[in-house]
Amino acid sequence: MRDATSSVTMTLFLSIGYLSGNFIVGLAAFVFLLLRAFYRLYFHPLARWNGSRIAAIDTAWYEFYWNVHLPGQLLFEIEKLHNIYGPVVRIGTNELHVNDPSVYLDITSVGSDFRKEPDFYHGISLEGTSIGGTDPEKHRVRRQVLAPAFSASTIQKLAPLVENSFKKLCEKMDSIASSVNAVNVKLAFKSFALDVVSEIVFGQAFGVMEEPNFHHPYLDSLQDTIRGAWIARAFPTLSTLSRSLPKSISAVLFPLPIAQFSKVTIQLADGNTQKTYGTRKKESVALELLLDIDSAKGHIVPPPDKLHDEAMMLLTAGNDTTSNAMILGLYEICKHQDVHRRLEDELRSAVPTPSQDIKYATVKKLPYLTAVIKEVLRYAPSVPGRLPRVVPEGGYELYGQQLPAGTIIHTSAYLLNRHPSIWGPDCKEFKPDRWLLPDSSTLDKYLASFHRGARQCLGISLAWCELYIVFATLFRKYEIEVFNTSDADMEWSDHLLLL
Ligand code: HEM
């Protein structure tokens, strides 16, 4: 009896002890979080900047809420914060968002030591690639290796390839339109952009345009991958884990859409060395340049998995960016009848018969077409949101306040491209004429759509070439009108790229 009583007492004693142990750990954690929140709000070096208090306390949850729970809405929330607090707002414990064109010019200027912010880029891209690499020296070498495939002079030479691809697309659209009267240009443009960029990367097109109605699994795979960008950013450990495992295991454990795309990339990359490119020089093929140790001083030929990573990033960078500009641009031009009519007039003078082939060399000289494309890029930048950079050693002075090294500064093309101090009171309107005023060449440097400086878009010449050919061909050869599409259908959100 005594034994039984003491055993009950002992059990009670132990469980009270266990509970109080848990309680103490819980309490300690609670006090720690409370003190940390207090520090972040009132004593952190960024405490003096207004913005989201939730973000200041916990950046990850803030981003998760605005970008995953409410898909792609953080950029618009940041816009609201700027409307309330002015050009600098706090959007994270150690992060500011700046909406000031002069600060943007400063941090992207030649010789700027601002680097890409590693955590962000490791979440949304592949490490060590032209886009995802954050080490300035390694990036400089990688960029030098790839530059010949994307330079303005190479693109000039490859323009016939782009012209022919779009001609093929038009023939296909013609045959679809003859039976159903309307064409879903979204998939058509994405197929075209993917076939063109795969030519530059692998020296051969994927052939996505050949698919009936342009339904190709790669396009879905790319789209799903972009949709997953903010989830990957929210759970960086999972994406790091998925990448560190062997590809066969990772594909089973993390059946990411990009894995499907990756398979094809691997097959193409592996077959690449035996390929011939006809009259085309090998130096205009990105993969060949990566495989050549002499491409740049300090270049190390990447092992197969890193080669695939780069190829995949290039394909991703060169697909939805350009095709979104085509889709949104087509819609805006058709919506603005005066723009539509003037564009047709200019093209009619430059290319007298509609059956005549459109040549990049001819249409890139057209002033109104050029103004329309710039306005499309300004109005709906394909990479609209935050591109974080890190304050270098020595700190950075912002509005008279010293920011410590390591502070993260974001800028966003969508906001910079509509800044009233540069673009005027009509900054929210689609008006190509702004690019034709006597002093409008001064505006070029404020167009943030391709970013600036050492990390400016590598595919800028290719993108321009595609946009010239697409808009010139469409508005010279066709009478276009919008079918069953409204402003609501064209509303976009920020998933790193527009979606
Ligand atoms: C309208 C079309 C395009 C737009 C608006 C655009 C925009 C951008 C922007 C804003 C960046 C900077 C990203 C960052 O800092 O994280 C970038 C980088 C890059 N883009 Fe584009 N892009 C377009 C088309 C293309 C095309 C066709 C390619 C071809 C593959 C391409 C390849 C790249 C690459 C490789 C980078 C990384 C450059 C570096 O960091 O050195 N882009 N692009």
From TrEMBL:
<dbReference type="GO" id="GO:0005506">
    <property type="term" value="F:iron ion binding"/>
</dbReference>
<dbReference type="GO" id="GO:0016705">
    <property type="term" value="F:oxidoreductase activity, acting on paired donors, with incorporation or reduction of molecular oxygen"/>
</dbReference>
<dbReference type="InterPro" id="IPR036396">
    <property type="entry name" value="Cyt_P450_sf"/>
</dbReference>
<feature type="transmembrane region" description="Helical">
    <location>
        <begin position="12"/>
        <end position="35"/>
    </location>
</feature>
<keyword id="KW-0479">Metal-binding</keyword>
<comment type="similarity">
    <text>Belongs to the cytochrome P450 family.</text>
</comment>
<keyword id="KW-0408">Iron</keyword>
<keyword id="KW-0560">Oxidoreductase</keyword>
<dbReference type="InterPro" id="IPR002401">
    <property type="entry name" value="Cyt_P450_E_grp-I"/>
</dbReference>
<dbReference type="InterPro" id="IPR017972">
    <property type="entry name" value="Cyt_P450_CS"/>
</dbReference>
<dbReference type="InterPro" id="IPR001128">
    <property type="entry name" value="Cyt_P450"/>
</dbReference>
<dbReference type="Pfam" id="PF00067">
    <property type="entry name" value="p450"/>
</dbReference>
<dbReference type="GO" id="GO:0020037">
    <property type="term" value="F:heme binding"/>
</dbReference>
<dbReference type="InterPro" id="IPR050121">
    <property type="entry name" value="Cytochrome_P450_monoxygenase"/>
</dbReference>
<keyword id="KW-0503">Monooxygenase</keyword>
<keyword id="KW-1133">Transmembrane helix</keyword>
<keyword id="KW-0349">Heme</keyword>
<keyword id="KW-0472">Membrane</keyword>
<dbReference type="GO" id="GO:0004497">
    <property type="term" value="F:monooxygenase activity"/>
</dbReference>
<protein>
    <submittedName>
        <fullName>Cytochrome P450</fullName>
    </submittedName>
</protein>
<keyword id="KW-0812">Transmembrane</keyword>
<feature type="binding site" description="axial binding residue">
    <location>
        <position position="457"/>
    </location>
    <ligand>
        <name>heme</name>
    </ligand>
</feature>
